[in-house]
Design goal:
Length: 162
């Protein structure tokens, strides 16, 4: 079983939509028994909350339901997941710092990368945070993560021979 954790700041916008679009892609590929995913935030601002209503509206328009409850990245995630996928450089730095603290208690660390780094010929590696933006920004977030997740899934399939 390959396990993927999508991570943003508060776990109410980018990472939940990345989680759900990836889950849909995995299911459509017939790999639900081989790949699992979840999401978390580096901050503790929204623990227990549903995703932002604006990203839920975008998801609903795409036939997706976001029912994930926000949680914070935990040290256990470094042993529970094979991939920790960050939405932006600040999240990546936070994950890498926590990884250094966790390293002595974990046999091997998961792959830690930015989501958009899996997209060939990509020049912008961060998924912009739509929280203070417009509905168009939330739609753009969906488009970005949906495309990047296709490349992440292709990478996982090739790497793990799925």
């Amino acid at each position: 079983m390959v396990k993927v954790l999508f991570i943003c700041l508060g776990n109410i916008c980018r990472s939940p939509i990345a989680e759900e679009t990836f889950r849909q892609q995995v299911t459509e590929a017939g790999l639900a028994d081989a790949i699992q995913c979840d999401s978390a935030g580096t901050g503790n601002y929204h623990i227990g909350e549903l995703p932002d209503t604006r990203i839920r509206k975008v998801a609903q328009a795409k036939g997706l339901t976001l029912s994930h409850r926000a949680r914070q990245l935990a040290k256990a995630d470094f042993s529970d997941f094979d991939y920790l996928i960050a939405m932006d450089a600040n999240n990546l730095l936070h994950i890498e710092n926590l990884a250094r603290q966790t390293q002595s208690s974990v046999d091997s660390l998961p792959v830690i990368r930015l989501l958009r780094s899996y997209t060939p010929k990509e020049t912008q590696f961060e998924v912009p945070d739509p929280y203070y933006g417009t509905m168009e920004d939330f739609e753009q977030t969906y488009q970005i993560v949906n495309t990047a997740n296709l490349h992440l899934l292709a990478h996982i399939r090739a790497t793990h021979q799925l």
